[in-house]
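Preliminary data (for renewal application), uridine-5'-diphosphate complex.
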Amino acid sequence: MSEPHYRRVIVKLSGEALTGKQGFGVEQAMVERLAADLVKAAALGIELGVVVGGGNIFRGVEVSTRGVPRPVGDTMGMLATVMNCLVLEAAVERAGCEARTLSALAMPAVCETYNRKRAMKNLAKGRVVLLAAGTGNPFFTTDTTAVLRAAELEAQAVLKATNVDGVYSADPKKDPKAKRYERLSHQEAIEKDLRVMDSTAFALARENDMPIIVFSIAEKGAIEAVLRGKGRATTVG
Ligand code: UDP
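Predicted structure:
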């Protein structure tokens, strides 16, 4: 078997990844599967930080269309990510690996507050570190959080889990001629308007020369496969 290519990575899971077949909220069986994947990946000896989205529960932009101020909607979205992290933390621990949720919004009765040193220490102990509450600021996304945390925690890459096996020239579900890229630079992704992540996240990745590996989470063991340089994925950067 090939050796893993990385020492420390940030995995980005969207809230949607936790919904499984039910299409909203959290499907426990899906959480258990993702936790098993994370534990397998951690068993390679790679330090794993995991940024979890919240779109399966609340998205600030959507909430704000109902008359709620956008920053309040965004706070709801960030709180949703905390719930997702807590359910995943419990599942990772049940699957046999220590895990810690660190939240960018202080809530000491619930979990520890994020700071860089604390995150580094937990990673060094081999714990799966769940990075909750996004950046802690409204008007940002968890994609931006993933790139930000990857840069500040000196990770070698962001592994962005999606429901397609990489970056395509067009939506492969709508356009059968869509071309899949194996590798491309940040600049090429911008020039081709491929929208790998939202523009803030992507700008941060480009500035920090942070590779983004886009892969499908649909297959069991997908995270481990990507870390071994196997499986289908697109590397941007
Ligand atoms: N959010 C935020 N600041 C952040 C990260 C997230 O305000 O730094 C809010 C925002 O409202 C966002 C929601 O949390 O819509 C859920 O995050 P995201 O949409 O990135 O989740 P995903 O689409 O990955 O499930």
